[in-house]
Structure formats: C-alpha cells, structure tokens
Amino acid sequence: MSKIFIIILTSVSVMVPVLAQQSAQDEPVDGPKTRFSPLHIDIDSGRQSLAAYQFELKVVTGWIKIVGVEGGRHKAFKEAPYYDPAALTKDRIIIAAFNTGRDLPTKRTRIATVHLQIIGEVEPEYELKLIVAADEEGKEISAKISYEKGESK
Amino acid sequence: MTERMQHFDENLDLQVSPKLSKDLSALFEPKHPVPPEVDRAVSDKIHRHLVGIKPLEGKRRRFHWVALWKVAAAAAVVIFAFSLDLTKKPEPLTNRSVLTGAQATDIDLNGRVDILDAFTLARQIENADHIATKWDMNGDGLVDHSDVDIVALAAVRLEKGVL
After folding, report:
1. pLDDT at B101 over 50
2. What does the domain layout of chain B look like in residue ranges?
3. ipTM score for this prediction
4. Closest among A152, A147, A151 to A59, alpha carbons compared
C-alpha cells in the first residue's frame, strides 16, 4: 500500500511541475480577457532638435505583454527603433534611436509606438523614464517624455 | 466425506464396504502410536517448505512493482516530451541577436553604454573621421554600421537594468 502511495507521489511530483510549466507557456484559453492596444510615446525637446533618445517603459499596474515596437511620425524616427528582442512578451522595455541627419524634429513629436497585449480587466499604468535625449551634436538636452494610450482592439 | 462426494457426484456410489475399510485400517494402522512431537515436527517441516515456496511469489510481486515503476517512468517521460512542444521552431539566429552578445564599449566616455555611444560612432563613420580600430566590435576588420548596431543593442539590453 505504501509502495503505491510512493509511486503516486513520485508520479505527481514529476508531472505537476511539467504540466504547470506547460500551462504557463500556453496562452490562457478560458482565462482573463485580452485586448491589444498601442501606446504612443512622445518627446518634447522644445526648441532644440532631437537627434537621439533612449527611454525605458515598464508597467506598474495591470498585466501586459509587449508585442511589437513601431517607429515614430517624423521621418527622422520613422524606422523601428532599437530594443532588446527579449523584451517582447515582457512588461518592460528599453527603446532607443538616433538620426545623424539634419532634418530633425523639434517640440513635441511622436518617436515610437509600443504595441501591447493587455490581459485582464485592470487598466494598466505605465512608468516612463527618459534616459537620455541629445541634439544633432550629440549633446544631452533636457526633454519631456509622455505617453498616450491608443484605441484598444 | 460421503456428503461431499455426493455433493460433487450424486450418482456415483463410493461407499466402501465395512470389510474393506477394516482390512485397510489393519494394513496401514501404525504399529506404534505417533507421538505429538513427531506430528509437530512434520507440520513444522511442511510449514517451512511452504514458506520456502513464497520467494517465488515474492519475485512475481517484485516483478509487478518493477513493471509499475517502468510504466510510471514512461508516463513521466511522455508527459515531459509533450511539454517541450517540439513543434515550436527555434528563433532564427539573426545578425542582430549575434551582435547583442558582443561586448560594447563606452565610446563617449560618459560612464555608461547608451544610445549616445552608438550615435557618436555613427557620426564618426559618416564624417569619415579617423576611427580607431578598437571600435571594431565584431572583429571583421571594419568599423561600420554593424559595429554601431552592436553598441546600440548593448544600450537597450534589458539585463543591465536602468529604472
């Protein structure tokens, strides 16, 4: 009898972590609601031209996964910026871009759009930190970074 | 005895005649009465003999246990194999991911590797300035945009952490 118990216990202890890992990998089928929403990132560099930027975005409330990153509106930052591919499917990302040209944006400009999968009913809140912004000479400038939530789908 | 026999085969007349019974008793009756010690010794021997047979049964049981363990182990292996999701293809090893692993350098010497290092290197390349060979990040003998990519990707790497 005790041997049966040991076998069952061993089997369960082997199978449960494996199954738990598998279920964690899978998308929730009947789990919480998910929707997709863009998060637009703007930088206001005032009168100074913006040639390079780097910022970090992370979620402080809610449950999201980053699914993609898109460039900005101004042609200097239209291309997809640099980011760590490991950030995809996570809730934290560092994004950066630069342009060595002379046609650079000033004032408030959209530099990137982060596409998010929002899981659950809780409306996510984000923390955005501008690590560095620089002008065409590569000199650090003061600038303000902000985000705007896009329409969910 | 008779009742049992009748129970199994009622039509068969197995009754022994009293004479035959008497003759058989006379023939096989022990000449001396069997002492209880001998009876006990015989029964002990029988018991030991039967106990001696048990290991066979034990082997069979052990065999069942071994079989059960094998089944359990096989089940665990099958479940583990399914959990690996072998249908998932590995991500293509792009140049970018290779570059991310390379070591980047603080080019503008501001104490950290950020996008300004990549920006500085890109400007040097575009202005065709004298570029130190030490900025050849990927060791291909050239300082070009692939080296800029290495620095930029090092700047955005999550592992280092910023906030």
Report:
1. no
2. 1-88, 95-155
3. 0.75
4. A147
